[in-house]
């Protein structure tokens, strides 16, 4: 009996924050009714769908679609030579990373009505499959960037999920399960290589709803080098295999059946089982037994390859062939028709037409959203189908409360597509329901429930709605400071629509936010408190204490969730400021003081402090040392790093690297002495109340005495310039060291050593431009030195 699991079961089994789904066919009404509902219950806020242009176009005719472009992203993908055919779901959240690879599209049929296959991937059980999945996503992003795959843009969620999959691939476990995709070449070629590793193929069994003739199966058998071919015959399928035609081509096949596929539902599963001399392989996923899917790389396909034992058996038995004419049909036209993709960034609608010959010229434009039909100014479309519309006040954003389509018309012919609202979507990704409530309120829909959500947010985030025009509080760390103002009161009556919500959202970046939600929050601050006086400083520990302490309970302890919310709001406020400005440095220290103060009074002091100090380091690292004399942020940064070393001496090397980046080079001893933490300082006592002066000094000494990879690179460059000896490199860099010694001695050309100008996640050989293999990338990341395939030594001297 084969294990039974559905994609819906997987959605309901965890708590997710991010979800990426790919599909060929698409039903948005199904997605919003079932998967989206489950994802929201699971806590997901960043949801994206990549759909083939065929499925995207079909979704435009669906009624009842309400959330596309607002609470989830939809990106159409067009593969020039074939179709975008993978059916992948990647979920990431507090319960870890999971992925499914199936044969089912994002439709009612694909999620329950058809006979489908689904492979559930768990990092500890299939680490290599997650490495393959990361490669797949990185290839997809690269092909879009190069124009080999046409998409309106490369969604950020692809990079996010690729990074998560790459990280998950480092988990221990069995590496026999792989993800096979057509970016690596034709599937028949890859499958044959895996079969050869098991002693060669003896038989192949194919389950497929589509064939397009017997040639793909014949080619598969020839690539595998096996003479025994079996093809499954099921009760109901779009297409039955033509056994007579296969025999005429010299590739006779045997019809077989299995109880696993005895359902009266329509077959849509795709399986290739290869029996080898030393094992058995099962490939399942998106690839049909057709030439574009198996024999060429015309389609983008993805399937899971497992090496299985006798516990997984299909129980094949001989059966009768079916007449090919008895198939149900239903293979969708992969060419599709014309459609468009559009994104509204708050100031302009930018997009592109697809599938339309000669699109250049002037088109009439209109917006359709439920009962709202609004005519826009004529739009000029370029030869490649690209266009830009700046609707200004003509776009009735306040009335667009449902999913929206843009319709372009020329010569009595319409081309339409969904409009994705980037700022709204970005804000919803970050904050979910509260962002949706703010959007509707800014648009003029003053619903009581939305106002209640916004006010609850303000109560839970006392610093979130501070005036942007802040003053300059003292930040010496000597203790609490007096606030310029007492508290902020927001009256329900003050929540009135602004004059132009579109203009508010378009210019919100001027109000201090960098993330989508921060831009929205900045607009909301101005919307709620436009008449508020300027000059209000960022509150320190004492200010916020008065606002939140009374809600902590009789024990006086602040609940972790409340502190997290306040710190997050304050951190966003600080992060919105340019790092080169003095108020960034002052407010960053105020944020640190609040973290330390709140941690002492929280229900989870140690974990809270550790989590938020780590985030604080990430927030301020880009600011660097103050020019001239050290300032208060320099002092705070050194103290936080020293505290990390006090807690874990093994962190000394990392802390030293951060300090070198902070100082943009070697650390001056006088600078360190001027910033030496003191056990009498309030900030130091909050960081570590037990450390005395000697302990703090020892932590700093240990930090700056460690050797970092950047020091090796710095000394290598000095040695190559004749200004010092070559450093002794780690054993792992023996090959690199040999080349460096040859160059330093004049026995090799200086061009064999290349220093990177910028850091990159995908370093490449500067001679042949091939990406470094994984091992070389890891060596460059860890040691800042790595040998390329052309025997060049790459150096990474960049501090950031």
TrEMBL record:
Domain of life: Bacteria
Xref: InterPro entries: PLD-like_cat
Region Disordered: start-end pairs: 316-340, 535-554
Protein name listed in UniProt: PLD phosphodiesterase domain-containing protein
